[in-house]
Amino acid sequence: MELYQSEPFYITYNAQQYNFRNCIEKLMGTSNLEELHQLQQYEVLDRAHDQSTVWHKKYYEQFDAFNTLYVDFVKNYLKPLLGIEKLVYQRIPTFRVHLVGNLAVGEWHKDRTYNHGSTEVNFWMPFTHAYGNNTIWTESKEDLADYKPYEVKPGEIFVFNGANLNHGNKLNDTSSCRLSVDFRIVDFKHFKPSDRGSINLNTRFDIGGYFEVC
Ligand SMILES: [Fe+2]
Fold first, then answer.
1. Where are the beta strands (DSSP E) in 36-138?
2. Do the beta carbons of residue 172 and residue 98 sit within 8 Å?
3. C-alpha angle with apex 197: 195 to 201, nearest 5 degrees?
4. C-alpha 6 – ligand 1 centre gap (Å)
5. What is the C-alpha to C-alpha distance for residues 129 and 84, in angstroms, rounded to an integer?
6. Region of residue 197 (phi > 0: left; psi between -120 and 50: alpha; otherwise: beta)
7. Does the chain have fewer CB atoms within 10 Å around its N or its C terminus?
8. What are phi and psi of 7, to 5 degrees?
9. Rounded distance from Cα 211 to ligand 1 centre (Å)
10. What is the DSSP string of 25-59?
């Protein structure tokens, strides 16, 4: 499968073999991911606070437990699927929580506005059924502004050019919370390291920093 495509696309994987949901349930301490909003309430999150819930803290503090499965998945599933000889991947996938009545990401943007390289491709992987206003909205071509929500079911990953496409989310008016990670993949042949850092943790956009290689 070609990594660099002109429009967003989906890949599928075996969610029993790679049981990310189960892993996230353990990290969050509940199997009822769709109803996290019942456990902790937040004002509508803005850009400065969209990584600061108790759920984010649980994910990042216990990241090693997620990392084993993630690295196995990237090396043994995505890399052969994409047919890439040397693959650059985001070391710590970014965790998102889209609570009912809230936002997961505080502002609409193109990732390159936040120092991301233009050859990065975004892999958007939810652990809950993502649809309507609990999923991601994006345009399909740069500046086309044909925004729509992309439904993503268990066992699917939504792949899009987040560096260059404007994307965001809306107030979650569904009855279901959405939990997801997103991570970036680059073919090493097209990788351009940068000394600049990421917006949340100020991690350098280079291998050994924000990225790892396999
Ligand atoms: Fe983004």
1. 87-90, 94-98, 121-126, 137-138
2. yes
3. 150
4. 18
5. 29
6. beta
7. N
8. -135, 160
9. 16
10. HHHHT-S-GGGGGGT---PPP-TTTTT-SHHHHHH
What spacing in Å lies between the alpha carbon of 155 and ligand 1's midpoint? 21
pLDDT tier, 64 (very low <50, low <70, confident <90, very high otherwise): very high
Residue 193 has pLDDT above 90, yes or no: no
Q: What digits encode the pLDDT tens for the residues 39-60?
A: 999 999 999 999 999 999 999 9
φ, ψ (nearest 5 deg) of residue 211: -115, 160
Q: How far away, in angstroms, is 172 Cα from ligand 1 center? A: 17
Q: Ligand 1 centroid vs 164 CA: distance in angstroms?
A: 9
CA of 109 to the centre of ligand 1 (A): 6
Q: How far is the CA of 95 from the centre of ligand 1 (A)?
A: 12
Q: What is the CA(161)–ligand 1 centre distance, in A?
A: 9
Measured torsion, CA atoms of residues 105, 124, 133, 127, in degrees rounded to the nearest 10: -100
Mind listing the domains of the chain with CATH numbers? Answer: 9-213 (2.60.120)
